[in-house]
Amino acid sequence: MDTLQRLTAILDRHMPADGIAASPIPGITLYRASSPTMPMPVVYAPTLCVIAQGRKQVMLGATAYVYDPAKYLVASVDMAVTGAVVEATPAQPYLSLSLDLDMAQLGDLALHYPVHEEEADGPATGLALGDADPDVLDAVLRLMGLMDTPRDIDALAPLITREILYRLLTGTGACNSMVRQMAQANSRLNQIAKAIVWLRANYNGACRIDDIADIAGMSRSTFHAHFKAVTSMTPLEFRSRLRLQEARRLMVSEAMDAAGAGFRVGYESPSQFSRDYVRMFGLPPAKDAVQLRKSGELRAS
């Protein structure tokens, strides 16, 4: 049985029902779907996404990132994207996992095992695909195998997770290059990441571009160009997406009405909230929330 078959067997065993579940291994989330899913807006934290079986498409703006067991995906910063499982059947369900990327560990590894990386002239992107590296897959398999021996998780999971980060940091290819940029405190990518962290914490308040550019340590024009290259959105578009996704969650998960959800996330005008909501999700807020509660899509995306 090869690496992917063994990984599929482990995920199938520990994720018997469709949905999303935290694993007993810190930083690991498991996913399963027995059929293709509707495109759903989500926010990716810095993460490594590995598929054992099936195929997924992630849209960043107008760019599609399609990956399967032959490729993995890395998100370098908190990314507002739209994701959908595009290949899955009851006999061969979509099975995948995500590993949160510990930026402190990445920085520490970069200091101990420096790999010279000239920052590209053009702005970095926030997502990258990499060919499935046998060394990375082998480490992922060993990490997931710890679910069968939970007594070993505390001792061994941190060591294997560090090995995965090391492989991502020192490998070759665009994906690995992006990971090295993530590990450099003064890289443009990290400067944009600081601005995104601020936006996520303050999305429901006032937002002056000059202030956010100062947080990133860039001029307004440079910040705008790099932010859009990383996220495929302007800072204000990014903030709007964060607001609308949180409003959607409040209506579905906490049964809040549309007016209350819009006000909670920073909208002063209910009509503006409704217009923006329809533009993003295709339905008025209340109608969309009712459909999502019935389907369970928001919880299973």
Summarize this structure briefly.
The chain is of the alpha+beta class.
Q: State the order of secondary-structure elements, H for helix, E for strand.
A: HEEEEEEEEEHEHHHHHHHHHHH
Main sheet, how many strands, which sense, barrel? Answer: 6 strands, antiparallel
Low-confidence stretches: none
CATH class of the largest domain: Mainly Beta
What is the first-to-last residue Cα distance?
Answer: 30 Å
Can you give the mean pLDDT?
A: 91
Q: Tally the beta strands.
A: 10
CATH-level-2 architecture of the largest domain = Sandwich
User: What helical percentage do the residues reach?
Assistant: 40-55%
Indicate how many domains the architecture comprises.
Answer: 2
In CATH terms, what is the fold-level topology of the largest domain? Jelly Rolls
Please give the radius of gyration in angstroms.
20 Å
Estimated structural class: alpha+beta
Question: What overall form do the CA principal axes indicate?
Answer: globular
Spatial ordering of strands, largest sheet:
1-2-9-4-7-10
Instruction: Give the percentage of residues in beta strands.
Output: 15-25%
Number of DSSP helices?
Answer: 13
Domain HTH araC/xylS-type: 193-291
Keywords: Transcription, Transcription regulation
Protein name: Transcriptional regulator, AraC family
InterPro entries: Homeodomain-like_sf, HTH_AraC, Tscrpt_reg_HTH_AraC_N
Q: In words, what does this structure look like?
A:
The chain is of the alpha+beta class and 301 residues long. The chain has two domains: 3-183, Jelly Rolls (Sandwich), CATH 2.60.120; 237-300, Arc Repressor Mutant, subunit A (Orthogonal Bundle), CATH 1.10.10. The protein contains 13 helices and ten strands. Strands 1-2-9-4-7-10 form a six-stranded antiparallel sheet. It has a four-stranded antiparallel sheet with strand order 3-8-5-6. The model has no long low-confidence stretch (mean pLDDT 91). This is Transcriptional regulator, AraC family. Residues 193-291 form the HTH araC/xylS-type domain. It comes from Orrella dioscoreae. One of its GO terms (molecular function) is sequence-specific DNA binding. Keywords: Transcription, Transcription regulation.
